[in-house]
Fold this sequence. Notes:
seven-stranded antiparallel beta sheet; alpha+beta; 4 helices; globular
Amino acid sequence: MTNMTFNGGKLYHIFEAERGDDGFYGDTSTFTSDTAKEALETGKVCLKVDGEITMIKCENGKWNFYRRQDNYKGNEPTVPLPDGLQSAHYSQGGKSHNYSYLYVSPDWTTGKGKRRSFPGPDTYAAIQKGVELGLIPDPTSDNCPEFITCEWMGRKHQKNMDGIPVDHALVPHMDPFIPRLFRGPIPMTFNRFSECAKSQILEGYIIKHQNGTMFKLRTDMIKGNLWASTKHKPAEPRVTQSSPSILTKEGVMQYREDLLKWGRGPIREWGGAGRNPTSQTS
Length: 282
């Protein structure tokens, strides 16, 4: 099996953060490390999407679904993060995080009546649809990776900033789901990122160092950003500029610029990335 490089661990920040006299806790222009500086200067970047980190793991010839947990104190057994460059233990701003994964049953449902939701059946059906479409590797194949991390998105997740019209959808961290912006050096500085945060509704950017380590730039760490002010409003189609392709139980959905709404159709390919299921964009 071929392992993916991103194991779902917390992404490292590019810039140091501090609390200002006005109480706002945000980025400064100081790099957190030399590696962070190198990542910004020479790494690859894609848009950050507003979802919940999850993982599909190949076990006994089938894909199983897991949700990432933060300092989990429940009674159910958890699964450690797979080996990778992101640590399962993370500290920032005086807070410590210990990450692990919790298995999700294909039969898991929540709520009653009109509020009933089907996170288990919907998600496993989306995974199977991805396999049928050739967008997710067949778990019985010899070249299937051990795991693939994903964003779990939809009406039942986060603030649903992109106005996704289904309860549960997946955005695997691989081509061609996540829009890649650049292949070469990133034309980004602290000042340019600040300008971007104040002029575009984006959660931020994911940056991959040449050694595989993952970093992030969050727009809500910039004072006056548009993301924070928009996040409290009801979700509408394409609130943000990210608009990833999503995998649902019925197939792939994309935001249709021509129709100004989410619709179905052939999956887009960004920058000629192609459909390589073992090559992450982030």
